[in-house]
Write a structure and sequence with these properties.
578 residues; alpha/beta; Rossmann fold; Hypothetical Protein Ta0175, Chain: A, domain 2; 4 domains; eleven-stranded mixed sheet; eight-stranded mixed sheet; 25 strands; 33% helix; elongated
């Protein structure tokens, strides 16, 4: 389910003239039977609410006093979310003829037309208080408290995200918490301003309107109303000046492109957009590409390859998580994935999170020859982002679940065609012009829209050059550097910058000079490390005629260490080097 919690106002929403009828109570029970949970969000104080509504046991938490108090009906526990009202404030209001007046755990409440006297008293006493209106009610609360802050505190207690919450209300003080919820409904009797900002307005009023909302929730998880939620869409880029976006719930997205084509940059920009909107993600990162992502905590890596409990704890707490697999041999990564993926799906079924699961270099995890165990992948994968170099490297069972493919690189058109063939679709028409840097082809498989040529949004995170992928990760053989020597008698592989420097310290001077003067170092830095400034420095060093091999090594090492963080380590012995 997408929506796990219904947060509802009481007066004017659930209740008509202070009472909730039996059909509405029956609908609340149906909602609970579907596995969802109920939270009440009300301006009332608890004593009067307990007296007015005997079925408060249906609700897991009550957010009372307009967001200032949490109450658990099962245990009758209370938790104030702000300081109680000042006795001097209440006494001054009474002296100034403000009545009726009530003081709860935090809230002070009265009715119009006393708002002028209330505001004057707040100014006279120099208090950090605010006045909130609910039709004719006048509520005084600390400046930082409202129904949204109260609901947010309740959802933290439940471990549920606002993105998995539906809200329904009718009045001015409901605006804040309805805006917090992923889906906002207004009952037919709601104020016009509330209806204008709601995603749905029921045709029935009060409790009958809530019944309509509950029936739609139980029947389809509000799937038919998804087109109305464009305010949550995540931008991918622009096409001819118009924004191209992605629904934040549901799509299975495959990003495809050769090494260093920009697919990681595109994915990073998408993850940044998700993080800005508080959608939680978990990345399984085989090669350490996302260890510098500012919006996530990194677990795993070379020293701690198995962190199932830590991953579960961080996700439950609400963190975005990068699970680094750099400490695992390639052969051990699919088993790691097989053990972790079911846990992620189970967690999502229970609390709705992580909202997105990201599988980088997915061909390491679900290669073409992979036969998934029964039930390891649901028939419909949702909110899954996969990244690979080519569709043909993936298992057919995976490709058939893809709903949107994003392709970067010079062969994007043929890649789209190969993907279409693999899933049994005719290749869609594509723009024949080669893609420019920062462009992608986007095809939503079941969308009647043609393949879109999109100028992608740039990543706001400038991933620093001390990424472990280059510093101490493992570049594939075709992107590694090979010290071969003048006669090609050596074949010493350096799959990262640390090993490059260690090997360079151990090889003979003739081999070092041969590769330096041949421009091999500059070529590797430019083509494989994708570092133009480092390549230019290598070319500069190669052009220094009187430099010794020892000095050349020192200059190249200094250039690398300026921009990359390398682990402290003594040079390794190099087999076969003199």
């Amino acid at each position: 389910m997408r929506y796990l919690v219904l947060a509802t106002d009481y007066d004017g929403t659930l209740a008509l003239r202070g009472a909730v009828d039996e059909p509405t109570i029956a609908a609340l029970e149906r909602l609970l039977a579907s596995g969802r949970r109920l939270v009440m969000v009300t301006g009332r104080e608890m004593p009067e609410l307990l007296q007015a509504f005997p079925r408060l046991d249906l609700f897991e938490i009550v957010v009372a006093e307009n967001g200032a108090l949490l109450y658990w009906p099962a245990s009758k526990q209370e938790k104030p979310l702000a300081e109680p009202p000042s006795a001097a404030f209440v006494e001054t209001l009474a002296r100034r003829g403000v009545e009726p007046i009530s003081a709860g755990r935090v809230i002070v409440a009265t009715w119009t037309p006393h708002e002028t006297a209330v505001l004057q008293t707040i100014r006279d006493l120099g208090l950090d208080l605010q006045v909130i209106f609910n039709k004719q009610a006048v509520m005084v609360l600390p400046a930082s408290v409202n129904k949204a802050t109260g609901l947010k505190a309740a959802l933290i207690e439940l471990g549920i995200s606002p993105h998995n919450t539906v809200g329904v209300g009718d009045a001015e003080n409901d605006h804040a918490f309805l805006k917090l919820c992923e889906f906002a409904a207004a009952v037919a009797n709601a104020l016009p301003a509330v209806k204008e900002t709601a995603d749905m307005v029921t045709s029935a009023d009060h409790g009958a309107g809530v019944v309509q909302l509950i029936d739609a929730l139980v029947e389809s998880d509000l799937a038919s109303l998804e087109p109305q939620l464009s305010r949550h869409h995540v931008p991918l880029g622009v096409q001819q000046g118009l924004e191209v976006s992605l629904r934040p719930y549901g799509p299975t997205v495959l990003i495809v492109g050769p090494s260093a084509s920009g697919k990681s940059t595109f994915a990073t920009a998408l993850l940044e957009a998700l993080a800005e909107r508080d959608y939680q993600f978990c990345i399984l990162d085989p090669e350490g590409d996302y260890q510098e992502l500012a919006s996530a905590v990194v677990l795993g890596g070379a020293e701690h390859p198995h962190l199932h409990d830590e991953v579960h704890k961080a996700l439950t707490k609400g963190d975005n998580v990068v699970v680094s697999m750099t400490g695992l041999p390639i052969a051990d990564r699919p088993p790691m994935f097989l053990s972790l993926m079911p846990q992620l799906l189970q967690l999502r079924a229970r609390i709705g999170r992580p909202h997105w699961i990201v599988l980088d270099e997915v061909h390491h995890l679900m290669p073409a020859e992979w036969k998934p165990p029964v039930d390891i992948l649901p028939e419909q994968l949702r909110s899954l982002l996969m990244i690979t170099v080519h569709p043909r490297l993936l298992a057919d069972d995976v490709l058939k679940r893809v709903t949107t493919i994003v392709v970067v690189g010079p062969d994007a058109r043929s890649t789209i065609s190969d993907f279409a063939t693999a899933i049994g679709r005719p290749p869609p028409p594509c723009d024949a012009e080669p893609l420019e840097t920062g462009e992608a082809l986007v095809w939503a498989v079941d969308d009647p829209q043609p393949v879109r040529r999109v100028k992608t949004n740039p990543s706001k995170t400038e991933r620093r050059r001390h990424r472990r992928k280059y510093a101490e990760g493992e570049l594939p053989p075709e992107r590694s550097f090979y010290f071969k020597g003048v006669d090609g008698k050596l074949n010493l592989r350096a799959q990262n910058l640390m090993l490059f420097l260690q090997t360079a310290d151990g090889i003979d001077d003739a081999t070092w000079e041969f590769h330096l003067r041949s421009g091999d170092y500059a070529r590797w830095f430019r083509d494989s490390i994708k570092d133009e400034s480092l390549a230019a420095e290598a070319e500069r060093v190669a052009g220094l005629a009187r430099i010794t091999p020892l000095e050349g090594r020192a200059l190249i090492r200094a250039a690398i260490e300026r921009d990359y963080t390398l682990p402290a380590s003594a040079p390794l012995p190099v087999p076969g080097a003199s």
